[in-house]
Amino acid sequence: MVGRFAPSPTGAQHLGNARTYLLAYWAARSRGDRLVFRIEDVDSPRVKTWAVQQAMDDLRWLGLDWEEGPDMGGPNGPYQQTLRMQSYRDVIDRLIQANRIYPCTCTRKDIASAGSAPHFDHEPAVYPGTCSRWSNQDPLPSSGTFCWRFRSSKRVFSFVDALLGYQEARPCEALGDFPVTQKNGEPSYQLAVAIDDSMMGVTEVVRGNDLIASTFRQLQIFEFLNVTPPTYAHVPLVLGSDGRRLAKRHGDTRLSMMREKGVPAGKIVDWAAKSAGLIGENEVVDHPSEVVSRFHWSKVTHDDVVADPHWAF
After folding, report:
1. CA distance linking residue 223 with residue 233, whole number of Å
2. Quick check: 138 and 187 in contact, CB under 8 A?
């Protein structure tokens, strides 16, 4: 069994990220599983070069460790998506040959005005299928830029979430066809993540509950690749006092800033364990290893967590 940490270096890691990483760590280590550290940096316009090393420093500071990653190598590297492009191109070629994807020239504005409401929160309008008549015998668009868009399945997909239980959706209705490349030709998040999890042998994915829609997209890619998908646990988000997702407006929640200010990492570990329901309010823990034996998904709370970052000081 293999778990993973997969930070995206589009900015600094924050309290919400820390809580999710800790839950992933506790879940894996409670079973004696290995952990892979992977940098998800295909979203190139937003990637900050300094954020790669900072993410590793932040997780080490929290007391987390892993068996494979960009800092130590391993049998399934490289562990940075921008170094894995050929793997993605190979699958894109296979998708084209199978007629599972098509070139799409539509803009976001086109889709927003013509698409239908999505089934899932936090998702864009369902793509109306404007470009879907293309087949792999047709020429590519002669002008403009395009992305490659995946033909979503008409059948029902399902999985049992370790925290939220049974989940199902009919992707073509709930989500519509989705991009597997950006318009610059680089792979999308959905494609790269599924390929990486498959090639790195990841068997459990722990991430925020706002990414359930992404799971249904990635399950279709796993099916195309003819590989068994990981199991999933979609954990509660960390919110500010106004009930909105934790952000700068709530105060500085960057882990790097807390490190610089001398905040003990154990304070964040203790908060994460308490807020997840893994230890009692009168207990105190100082290191992630102290919670491993206490972990079970049946104990973890389902509700999003409200955190005032000023508590750390």
Report:
1. 19
2. no
> Where are the domains positioned within the chain?
2-82+236-312, 85-192
Distance between CA atoms of residues 123 and 103, nearest Å: 21
- Identify how many contiguous H helices and E strands the chain contains and give both numbers: 9, 11
DSSP H stretches of helix in 33-188: 50-62, 85-97, 108-114, 171-174
The domain 85-192: what is its CATH number? 3.90.800.10
96 and 136 Cβ atoms separated by less than 8 Å: yes
- What are residue 103's phi and psi, to 5 degrees? -75, 135
Cα R_g (the chain), whole angstroms: 20
Contacts of 63 (CB under 8 A, 6+ apart): 265, 266, 269, 287, 288, 289
How far apart CA 60 and CA 286 sit, in angstroms, is 14
Sign of the CA dihedral running 18, 20, 24, 26? positive
The answer to whether 186 and 145 have CB atoms below 8 angstroms apart is no
What gap in Å lies between CA 247 and CA 253, rounded to an integer? Answer: 7
Phi first, then psi, for residue 66 (nearest 5°) are: -155, 165
Average pLDDT (265-281) is 96
Domain 2-82+236-312 class in CATH: alpha beta
Half-sphere exposure (Cβ direction) of 289: Cα atoms closer than 13 Å: 4
82-125 pLDDT tens trace: 999 999 999 999 999 999 999 999 988 888 887 777 778 778 88
